[in-house]
Design brief:
Number of helices: 7
Number of strands: 0
Shape: globular
Number of domains: 1
Oligomer: single chain
Radius of gyration: 18 Å
Order of helices and strands: HHHHHHH
Strand content: under 5%
Length: 162
């Protein structure tokens, strides 16, 4: 008698071209995934500029800018460091407003900084290997989990109030 499985069968990812995954950029086999990431992040920014932004869209942009910062630290697009830091600071200010007013409100300089940071992130993704993106994503998750170089919007508001 065969033992029943406790969990759903989920096959492992099989790369169409392993060498492209390891040595190539994101533009080869991963082009559709790259485009999906870019569309989602630019859509979130467009919604924020039109006043229909959500917390989820803000979180998506924060994740993209955090990945861009980590990739700069790893030597991928280090010339973009100033733009990604400015975008991070702008998103922090927007996050404070989201917590205070429960609405997404962007100022002009913040919008320009976030847009520039997002363009840097897009350029990094176009010129990097898939394995580097995965490493950067794991590093961002590790830093958030262990509160390393992470700023909480709520803590910042409490610090300002005190």
């Amino acid at each position: 008698m065969k033992k029943p499985r406790n969990r759903k069968y989920r096959p492992k990812y099989v790369a169409r071209n392993v060498l492209t995954t390891v040595f190539g950029g994101m533009s080869g086999d991963h082009i559709e995934h790259l485009r999906l990431i870019q569309i989602r992040s630019h859509k979130a920014l467009a919604e924020m500029t039109q006043g229909a932004g959500t917390r989820e869209g803000w979180d998506l942009l924060v994740g993209a800018i955090n990945m861009a910062n980590v990739m700069c630290e790893q030597g991928i697009g280090n010339a973009f460091r100033a733009q990604t830091i400015a975008a991070r600071d702008a998103l922090l200010e927007v996050g404070k407003r989201i917590v205070k007013l429960d609405r997404v409100i962007l100022k002009g300089d913040e919008l320009n900084a976030i847009r520039a940071g997002l363009e840097c992130h897009d350029a990094q993704l176009e010129n990097v290997r898939a394995i580097d993106v995965e490493r950067a994503c794991q590093e961002v998750d590790r830093r958030v989990r262990h509160h390393i170089n992470s700023t909480s919007v709520v803590r910042e508001l409490a610090r300002e109030a005190a």
